[in-house]
Amino acid sequence: MDDRAATDLAMLVLRAATEVVDGIGEGMAARGYDDLRPAHGFAFARIAAADTTVVDLAEHLGTTKQAASQLVAGLVERGYVVREPDPRDARARLLRLTEAGEACTRAAEAAAADVVAGWNEVLPRASLGALHAMLRRVVTPGPLRPAW
Amino acid sequence: MDDRAATDLAMLVLRAATEVVDGIGEGMAARGYDDLRPAHGFAFARIAAADTTVVDLAEHLGTTKQAASQLVAGLVERGYVVREPDPRDARARLLRLTEAGEACTRAAEAAAADVVAGWNEVLPRASLGALHAMLRRVVTPGPLRPAW
DNA sequence: TCGGGATAGTCAATGTGATTGACCATATGG
DNA sequence: CCATATGGTCAATCACATTGACTATCCCGA
Questions:
Q1: For chains A and B, what is the number of CB pairs under 8 angstroms?
Q2: Is B123 close to A138, i.e. CB distance below 8 A?
């Protein structure tokens, strides 16, 4: 694979990501969530997955803890997240999704699945699985930056 | 492919894009370009490809023409782009890369190729081509949004 | 056990980039 | 030619993230 093709592949990945992000945004809007940006979704995913603090979240999003704190404040204000005391550390506050927050997460997952379903239509059946497998091998676990 | 796997695939695409963006950023910094963000790169790609005006660029980046104008102003200031009169329309100004701008584009392509080269190491040789082919089929041409 | 340094979190001020709104110059179509 | 649409910029504002400062709590060693 020469440089030209390699650059091309990199651009295809970026374009695919743009489609995913835009598609999720549209799907969320269609489901009645029009006040949430991708950064919120990434935060939801992290908060849902494990006991999460503001500092954890900041690292995961690749931002400062102040920015993460502001983000969380907005989510709390809108009723998607609650802050609970950490029984192990009186400084820390554990973040937890409310029922509304979990409903929102499910909506985002459905929207993401819709985007991929669109790909399924233009790709041979087995290929989507192959795509998945390849990306899984290629990609290293790490943060999902909400902004370029 | 069920919803779970579909969501998972979508996330893999986003993570891959994050790697591409971060990788290019690091590669550019290593090559001495530390004042350029991804949005600039997307602008370069567009300006290099065809006769481009500020409004064209705005559509391509998915922003307003004012934002595109500001972006271009910064690039002009730093010597990467020049504005030339459009012989066909006295209102318009065609954007063109300077030699510095083209050198910068080459550096970005090399950095992108480096990222993909890393993938090449963990993937069977033929697979990278297959990945390319799949994404090409899946992806529709469209804007490359610099921000989520 | 107590004192110093590290860590969790917030508040306030600042800065950067994008958007909205207004405006001028030029094109274009009736 | 006049009305309207389009390319572009300037200015004001807004949204978001960052830097800096500060409090409260934890942890570790003397």
A1: 164
A2: yes
pLDDT digits (tens, 9 = 90+) for B33-77: 988 888 899 999 999 988 999 999 999 998 999 999 999 999 999
d(CA A17, CA B42): 14
pLDDT level of residue B123 (50, 70, 90 thresholds):
confident
Residues of B in contact with A8 (CB under 8 A): 132
In the beta sheet, which residues pair with residue A147?
B147
- Give yes or no for residue B3 having a pLDDT over 60: yes
All structural domains of chain A:
35-138 (1.10.10.10)
Cross-chain residue pair A16–B21, CB shorter than 8 Å: no
* B37 CB below 7 A from strand C atoms: yes
- Residue among A134, A122, A124, A123 nearest B126 (CA): A134
Chain A nearest-CA distance from B90, in A, is 34
Report how far residue B136's alpha carbon sits from residue B56's, in angstroms, rounded to the nearest whole number: 24
Q: What angle do CA A117, B22, B135 make, to 5 degrees?
A: 30
Strand D close residues, chain B 67-86, CB < 7 angstroms: 69, 72-73, 83, 86
Q: Is the CB atom of residue A72 positioned under 7 angstroms from any atom of strand C?
A: yes
Q: Is the CB of B90 under 7 A from strand C?
A: yes
Cα–Cα distance, A126 to A21 (Å, whole number)? 24
Which of B84, B74, B22, B20 lies closest to B43 in space, CA to CA? B74
Residue partners of A58: CB distance under 8 A and separation at least 6: A64, A65, A67, A68, A69
Asked if residue B142 has pLDDT above 80, the reply is no
- Report how far apart, in Å, the C-alpha atoms of B104 and of each of A27, A117, B76, B93 are: 37, 38, 14, 22
